[in-house]
């Protein structure tokens, strides 16, 4: 027996020592990678190079800070995925880089929203002003990628490829049938005729009001889509509408016949064409640089064309990124925590070097309370220094709430905004517990409303009145904040509010935004308002370190990775159901649903 314990003890000590040694080696490895990534020199770009742009991933507002992405089992994906900030900066840098002769747009799927695509598209239009070429090629043209590619000097597609040109559609998933089968009743308290975020829980199809607003904003976005292609391809807009409406474009030959593309070629033919354009011998390799690598490269600038002066000015403009759903607490890089964003705004406001602020909002909203906390910081900032809002794909409901106090608001024509309304959802799961599971509840309470919000029973009329009063108060607060920020009457804001969704183009007409433009336009406006000719840009909030991600969100990242891999396109339904639990905690200033334009 004594010998047995000796072996057990020896084995135990051996395991502990092995784990310790592996941990030390792991720490050294990680430290080396981080040090290498942070201190690595910028890569060189060969002369006569092309900038290769392939966007086949969802584009974040900022490039994720993840030096561990080089290790597949840690980063889960070793591919570099530049955020919108670096995509726009790289295209702008390439415009003035003598070594970059043109851009090759290749096989992109444009999984992000329409406004993000718009910003990249406008950056390509600006790039072409340098006289450099843009060539686009794809085997499959989705409507989103075709809209982007349509600005290219030459648009090519595979002779056997596929092109979508059929018009826009938007679909809502209704959960009432499933909830009925489960014996769950959604108890709805809301303000706003058009506040349709709750419709999937108690209807089986769109309400007339929701159908009206979706038809309106979808039509606005589609009109902008056709107008842009018409201008780039020199095709009559009515003709484009008829091509889509009649299903004219079905085969590659149709796209060529009706001038949507300039040629049908295979990839090798495209590469040969690019070599000729860059004076590279056919037998040599094409000089190209990937977008993810070009971000860190040094540009050889053409002084005659360089429209951006380098500066060592101590004056700063802070760009504060508020992206994702709005909730209390710190949030993360993909969500807006009221504590974290408020702290970032406060830090920029009290920094004497920061002369102006640009708040970049890309959010469908969320908690009305958390939105109000951020709004307060924006309002306080406006009193001491300029603060300009730049809207991304969506800045609606709570996303609009945090924007409305700014000095001015910029949006893209196809930004989704508005949705000024409040709602609350509380499930009644009595039948589910009683009939489906055979579970009953009983208890005592010290007051009539002590168990208000209990999901095991329906609300009483008195309890519904209490919740309705809270939601009404939230809507009154929301509309007052918008009225004060936009210098309109509360009655007018109520008339265009009621939860109604607008595009940026429509919002410009009704006064919810001031100008159509991108984040660079917002920065220029902030500089002008602060009387700055030279300045540096600083980004807030600080992105989380890789170790904090490992400690706090790494397990969640792994879970999300495998769930997405398993569910594929159905992951959005999983997210929608999961989001229901968040809606049940506090009154919500949230978009009607996840707007997906097909």
Overview features:
598 residues, 22 helices, globular, 8-stranded mixed beta sheet, alpha/beta
Terminal Cα span: 72 Å
Q: What percentage of residues falls in helices of 4 or more residues? A: 40-55%
Average pLDDT level: 85
Largest sheet data = 8 strands, mixed
In terms of structural class, how would the helical and strand content be classed? alpha/beta
Indicate the overall shape. Answer: globular
Q: Low-confidence spans: pLDDT under 50, at least 5 residues?
A: 34-42, 73-77, 304-309
How is this structure best described in words?
It is a single chain. With 598 residues, this protein is an alpha/beta fold. The strands form five sheets. Strands 8, 11, 13, 14, 15, 17, 18 and 19 form an eight-stranded mixed β-sheet that branches. The chain has a six-stranded parallel β-sheet with strand order 6-4-3-2-1-7, sandwiched between helices. Strands 5-16 form a two-stranded antiparallel sheet. Strand 13 (387-396), helix 15 (398-401) and strand 14 (408-411) form a beta-alpha-beta unit. The model is unreliable at 34-42, 73-77 and 304-309 (pLDDT under 50).
Can you give me a brief rundown of this structure?
With 598 residues, the chain is of the alpha/beta class.
Topology summary:
Layout: H1 2-39, E1 49-53, H2 72-75, H3 84-96, E2 100-106, H4 114-128, E3 133-141, H5 143-149, E4 154-163, H6 176-182, E5 185-191, H7 199-202, H8 208-233, H9 237-245, H10 252-257, E6 263-264, H11 267-277, E7 288-290, H12 291-294, E8 316-323, E9 326-327, E10 336-337, H13 338-350, E11 354-363, E12 365-367, H14 368-382, E13 387-396, H15 398-401, E14 408-411, E15 416-418, E16 422-428, H16 430-436, H17 461-486, H18 490-496, E17 501-503, H19 504-510, E18 515-516, H20 519-529, E19 536-540, H21 546-567, H22 571-583, E20 588-590
Parallel strand pairs: 1-2, 1-7, 2-3, 3-4, 4-6, 8-11, 8-19, 9-10, 11-13, 13-14, 13-15, 14-18
Antiparallel strand pairs: 5-16, 12-20, 15-17
Helix pairs in contact: 3-4, 4-5, 13-14, 17-18
């Amino acid at each position: 027996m004594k010998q047995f314990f000796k072996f057990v003890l020896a084995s135990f000590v051996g395991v502990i020592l092995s784990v310790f040694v592996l941990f030390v080696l792991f720490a050294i490895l990680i430290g080396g990678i981080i040090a290498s990534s942070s201190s690595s020199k910028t890569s060189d770009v060969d002369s006569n190079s092309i900038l290769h742009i392939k966007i086949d991933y969802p584009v974040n507002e900022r490039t994720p800070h993840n030096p561990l992405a080089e290790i597949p089992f840690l980063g889960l994906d070793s591919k570099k995925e530049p955020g919108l900030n670096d995509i726009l900066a790289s295209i702008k840098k390439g415009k003035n880089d003598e070594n970059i002769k043109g851009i090759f747009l290749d096989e992109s799927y444009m999984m992000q929203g329409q406004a993000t695509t718009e910003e990249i598209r406008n950056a390509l239009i600006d790039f072409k002003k340098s006289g450099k070429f843009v060539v686009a090629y794809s085997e499959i043209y989705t409507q989103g990628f075709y809209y982007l590619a349509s600005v290219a000097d030459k648009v090519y597609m595979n002779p056997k490829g596929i092109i979508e040109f059929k018009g826009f559609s938007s679909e809502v998933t209704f959960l009432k049938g499933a909830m009925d089968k489960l014996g769950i009743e959604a108890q709805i308290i809301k303000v706003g005729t058009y506040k349709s975020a709750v419709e999937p829980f108690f209807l089986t199809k769109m309400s007339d009001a929701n159908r009206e607003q979706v038809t309106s904003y979808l039509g606005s976005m589609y009109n902008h889509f056709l107008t842009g292609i018409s201008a780039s391809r020199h095709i009559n807009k009515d003709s484009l509408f008829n091509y889509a409406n009649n299903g004219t474009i079905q085969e590659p030959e149709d796209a060529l016949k009706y001038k949507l593309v300039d040629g049908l070629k295979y990839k090798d033919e495209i590469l040969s064409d690019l070599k000729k354009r860059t004076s590279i011998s056919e037998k040599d390799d094409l000089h190209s640089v990937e977008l993810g690598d070009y971000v860190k490269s040094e540009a050889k600038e053409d002084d005659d064309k360089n429209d951006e002066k380098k500066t060592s000015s101590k004056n700063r403009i802070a760009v504060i990124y508020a992206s994702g759903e709005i909730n209390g607490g710190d949030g993360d890089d993909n969500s807006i925590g009221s504590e974290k964003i408020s702290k970032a705004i406060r830090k920029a406001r009290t920094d004497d070097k920061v002369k102006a602020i640009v708040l970049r909002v890309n959010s469908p909203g969320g908690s009305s309370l958390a939105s109000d906390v951020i709004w307060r910081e924006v309002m306080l900032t406006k009193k001491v220094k300029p603060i300009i809002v730049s809207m991304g794909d969506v800045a609606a409901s709570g996303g609009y709430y945090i924007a409305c106090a700014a000095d001015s608001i910029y949006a893209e024509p196809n930004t989704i905004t508005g949705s000024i309304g409040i709602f609350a959802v509380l499930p009644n799961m009595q039948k589910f517990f009683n009939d489906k599971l055979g579970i009953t509840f009983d208890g005592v309470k010290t007051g009539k409303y002590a168990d208000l919000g209990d999901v095991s029973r329906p609300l009483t009329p008195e309890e519904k009145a209490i919740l309705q009063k809270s939601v009404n108060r939230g809507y009154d607060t929301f509309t007052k904040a918008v009225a004060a920020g936009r210098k309109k009457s509360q009655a007018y804001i109520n008339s265009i509010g009621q939860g109604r969704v607008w595009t940026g183009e429509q919002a410009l007409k009704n006064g919810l935004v001031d100008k159509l433009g991108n984040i660079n336009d917002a920065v220029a406006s902030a500089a002008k308002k602060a009387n700055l000719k030279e300045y540096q840009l600083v980004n807030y909030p600080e992105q989380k370190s890789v170790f904090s991600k490992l400690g706090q969100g790494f397990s969640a990242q792994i879970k999300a990775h495998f769930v997405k891999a398993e569910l594929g396109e159905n992951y959005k339904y999983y997210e929608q159901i999961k989001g229901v639990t968040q809606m049940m905690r506090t009154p919500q200033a949230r978009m009607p649903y996840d707007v997906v334009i097909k």
